């Protein structure tokens, strides 16, 4: 009787372990998909941005922007290029968004956007709702947060 009970407990623990492994794989896959649609690295998402100081081409000033152009991202079928301009014509941001994110936001020329610098990158959101929808992570943060397989 004692051996039978121990065997049952071991079998139940094994089954539970397999179930947890399957759920963990599914969770990691879902988290990876969600993350890739809502964030990117500076080197992958910002192209040719400019500012009045003539410094770093990927530096973005906090504030309100207006979408002035939408186009396909060259050599990237899965991305859409959104060009935004602040009140100062010298402050222009060129943001390459994943197509999924662009489609979900239904962005159009003339829409208001905002940029907000954070310690870990730059938050972009709609000007009408001030809800962030895309995070451009600093390259060092992006590398640290990259998806990696997890095993239990």
UniProtKB/TrEMBL annotation:
- Keywords for this entry? Signal
Compositional bias of type Low complexity: which residue ranges? Answer: 36-54
Q: Where is this region: Disordered?
A: 36-60
Instruction: Indicate the secretion signal residues.
Output: 1-24
What is the name listed in the Swiss-Prot or TrEMBL entry for this protein?
A: AMIN domain-containing protein
């Amino acid at each position: 009787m004692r051996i039978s009970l121990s065997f049952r407990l071991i079998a139940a623990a094994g089954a539970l372990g397999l179930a947890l492994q399957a759920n963990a794989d599914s969770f990691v896959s879902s988290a990876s998909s969600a993350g890739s649609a809502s964030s990117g690295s500076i080197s992958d998402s910002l192209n040719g941005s400019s500012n009045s100081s003539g410094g770093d081409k990927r530096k973005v000033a906090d504030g309100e922007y207006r979408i002035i152009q939408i186009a396909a991202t060259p050599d990237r079928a899965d991305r859409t290029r959104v060009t935004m301009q602040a009140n100062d014509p010298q402050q222009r941001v060129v943001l390459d968004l994943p197509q999924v994110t662009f489609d979900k936001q239904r962005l159009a020329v003339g829409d208001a956007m905002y940029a907000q610098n954070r310690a870990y990158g730059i938050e972009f959101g709609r000007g009408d709702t001030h809800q962030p929808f895309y995070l451009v992570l600093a390259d060092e943060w992006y590398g640290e947060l990259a998806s990696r397989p997890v095993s239990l």
